[in-house]
Design goal:
2 copies of one chain form a homodimer. By secondary structure, chain A is an alpha/beta fold. The first copy, chain A, folds into 3 domains: about 15-170 and about 320-355, BirA Bifunctional Protein, domain 2 (2-Layer Sandwich), CATH 3.30.930; about 170-310, 2-Layer Sandwich (BirA Bifunctional Protein, domain 2), CATH 3.30.930.10; about 365-455, Rossmann fold. Chain A contains 15 helices and 16 strands. The first copy, chain A, has helices at about 20-40, 55-60, 95-105, 150-165, 180-190, 195-205, 205-210, 210-220, 225-235, 240-250, 255-275, 340-350, 370-385, 400-410, 450-455, and strands at about 45, 50, 70-75, 90, 115-120, 135-145, 170-180, 280-285, 300-305, 315-320, 335-340, 365, 390-395, 415-420, 430-435, 440-445. In chain A, the strands form 3 sheets. Chain A has an 8-stranded mixed sheet. Chain A has a 5-stranded mixed sheet with strand order 13-12-14-15-16, sandwiched between helices. In chain A, helix 1 crosses helix 12 (about 340-350) and helix 5 runs antiparallel to helix 11. The first copy, chain A, is elongated. The first copy, chain A, starts with 20 loop residues before the first helix and ends with a helix. Chains A and B meet through helix 1, strand 1, strand 2, helix 2 and strand 3 of A and helix 1, strand 1, strand 2, helix 2 and strand 3 of B.
């Protein structure tokens, strides 16, 4: 005999959540919009497996992600089971698999290569503070052969803009920066080694989370003089118009890297404007760094203006050489990633995304007497479905009232059933079409079923 | 310094394949059709995570699947890493997670509960003979509370029919059987214990793969007398019309279970007819058993008539109690599963599914002189995209000829670029719209860009 499973065991493991039908509908709706915008911009889906070789993943894993890679092991192997489990690990993002794919297939590829990837990734994090261990990332990237113009960076920003316009979660701002500008500046205020620069970048990136006092302390701990740290906070968080910003940035002398960063940023912003992105949708934010990521130039992230606590809702940037470690060819790239799971779960929790219908079905085919009317019942369902109307047929013996209640509880809009009038000699050939939202109903000939239902949806 | 990755390491692990952009387009097209048909029949998507508790999976795993469950382990855990990896395993199907979800949430659910699940599952099989370790299953199931009418079984068959009608892989046949009929018969010819019946069911199920001689030998090895084994092969593989079949089946006296199976099968077939499924799409096949699965009554599987070697392309059946082991409530169910990965990979290999365009983009925005025309170039891309036309903008400096070549190689249909006529004083405001398929082009005013492109697609 098997042991019965306890109630606690029926919960999915922490950080690996279910999406109930109503939540899944919201998720699918969101993914559909993202996918459509990605495809309108010519980014073709490309799928890599959930499972990659660990050496591929570890060649690119940086920082804490290194400790979050799950490998696979057969739990109850048989004598003849595959024995290569040491070669199997789960992807933690879509970019590393892209790098592998491009390195492996570059001979047959046409550059610039554009692809989108929407699907789950897994990280062994502590499941708290709205963090998930399995989450959906929706990415686009474009990879160039040797060179890639900065107009591609602007295009990424235009894609973020069109996606969040269509998602309609309210006004948003895309903050744009350049890593060279940031690291050039940090170098000039006393960050002497690349490692110190890197750590300073992360401290600056956490500014919004940690606040001014802690950030100043962290910069001081890194060996940066107090007046320099003060200057950094002021300089990096100043808010001015794009024209003002470039007027000042161009005049500053923080060395060659800084000047390159300013010029790159100006090219990107110029191109963003030419894509026709409304000026209210973007700004320059010199404190944006995108954390531990491998970005080397342009970086950007988006926030919802009305919900700054949600933090970054999408972000990305330019990386010098995607296939670094995998191929001698120089393949620069730029991309965007939307962390769909975390964003949508929080929007649902906050009531910003509404969860309504429990079913995709809009119509219920019901019956007063299923057994005698079965043939009509089933053929009506088939007819409505072939007309493209999502239709559920109620196939259990239940009172008509219960069937109407079932349709209402599940959020359907229309119920149809045979009309049983007393006078009408051909009553069986007429149908009641009841509108559950309005509460009214009309009686129509069988032949008018589809058009009548369509008119109510 | 990091070690460079070798060419062999750039291949995804055996049994975990990439889908190149052109293959991914075919996959997404196929999944889109399946999903649409599932939703038209009122089956709402419901997502469960990739990762489940092992005790849930092992409570339901049967046969060789037991040895194929992959658990997770952190490959390089840090001191503060989560330590619950013994509680994490990857799902091997969608049905066990459904059982868990229903058992956990039954209090808030409305029955019959319909859901579809389309996504990857993982099994530690040997990756050979077109077997994949990661593959996409596309399932629908309906779960009843205590009872569930046999019309649901017929509805599943109607869904298989509408999916494969729309997929247009050619004519197909859905073979229908009933497990009670089969086990009742096998009991009557000398399979005395449930275990022997179960093993005989599997032998019969393998008939098509193994052939008559081996099957007879296997039945003999099981202790079935030779004349009984001979009779079984004849009885179970006879081909007759549905009317002939029931006339005979009703008259046979193989005990109560057999008679129940015949009656259930007749109810299902009757309902299949009433759903309006063309008679050419289905038949009775008494040898169908669906292997080691947990089905207890109706079973069915589909084959492509022109490609019998592909074997079963979809299948399913009725199970008595989904939440068995998880809940005391009796929850009968019936479902369908399509093994998308295996089927599509083979159809692509055989050339039945054609792989064409390398991109979703239909239009390329090009330029003779990108630098001077950049603003027009980018705004044209934005305009076409907001008109719903998948558009790629070529953002590198390249000869126009190379850009045209790029569009053609990637399978786009139209290229647009500024007209530079000699006479025309407002040449810059006119656009060349070139049809790559026909090889012709027309020159139109800027304002006609969208309508002209639309007329060519």
């Amino acid at each position: 005999m098997r042991t019965r499973i306890t109630k606690d065991q029926l919960k999915s493991p922490a950080g690996f959540g279910d999406w109930s039908p109503e939540q899944a509908s919201a998720l699918d709706h969101m993914l559909g919009i993202i996918r459509e915008q990605y495809m309108l911009a010519g980014f073709t889906p490309m799928h890599t497996p959930l499972v990659e070789r660990p050496e591929i993943l570890f060649a690119k894993a940086q920082g804490e992600v290194t400790n979050q890679v799950y490998g696979l092991r057969l739990m109850k192997p048989a004598e003849n089971s595959p024995t290569d489990e040491k070669n199997l690990a789960i992807r933690f993002d879509h970019t590393v698999p892209l790098a592998r794919f491009v390195a492996a297939n570059q001979g047959e590829m046409v550059f610039p290569f554009r692809r989108c990837a929407i699907g789950p990734v897994v990280r062994g994090e502590h499941p708290k503070d709205g963090r998930y261990r399995e989450f959906i990332q929706a990415d686009v990237d474009v990879i160039g052969d040797k060179t890639l113009s900065f107009d591609h960076d602007a295009e990424m920003i235009s894609i973020i803009s069109s996606v969040f316009d269509k998602l309609a979660f309210g006004p948003f701002t895309i903050r744009i920066n350049n890593r060279k500008l940031l690291t050039g500046y940090l170098g000039s205020i006393g960050c002497e080694t690349p490692d110190v620069v890197r750590r300073a970048v992360n401290i600056v990136d956490d500014l919004e989370k940690k606040g001014r006092t802690e950030t100043l302390q962290n910069l001081a701990d890194l060996g940066i003089e107090e007046n320099n740290a003060q200057h950094a906070l002021e300089f990096l968080t100043r808010s001015y118009t794009i024209e003002e910003a470039f007027e000042e940035l161009r005049s500053l002398e923080y060395g060659k890297e800084f000047a390159t960063g300013v010029a790159e940023l100006e090219t990107v912003i110029d191109s963003v404007r030419q894509f026709g992105i409304p000026a209210s949708r973007y700004c320059i934010d010199l404190s944006i760094a995108r954390g531990l990521n491998y970005y080397t130039s342009t970086v950007y992230e988006a926030q919802l203006d009305d919900y700054p606590d949600l933090g970054s809702i999408a972000g990305g940037g330019r990386y010098d050489n995607l296939a670094d470690d995998f191929s001698p060819r120089h393949l620069p790239g730029v991309g965007v990633s939307i962390g769909v799971t975390r964003l949508l779960r929080r929007l649902i929790k906050m009531g910003i995304v509404e969860i309504k219908s429990k079913t995709v079905a809009k119509v219920l085919v019901a019956s007063r007497d299923f057994q005698t009317e079965k043939e009509l019942h089933l053929s009506r369902a088939s007819l409505l479905r072939s007309a493209g109307i999502p239709t559920e047929a109620f196939l259990e013996k239940r009172d008509l009232g219960k069937q109407l209640n079932f349709a209402a509880r599940r959020g359907m809009k229309v119920v149809v059933f045979t009309h049983h009038g007393n006078d009408d000699h051909d009553a069986g050939r007429k149908i009641v079409v009841r509108n559950l939202e309005q509460g009214d109903q009309i009686i129509v000939p069988e032949a008018d079923l589809v058009v009548t239902v369509q008119s109510m949806l």
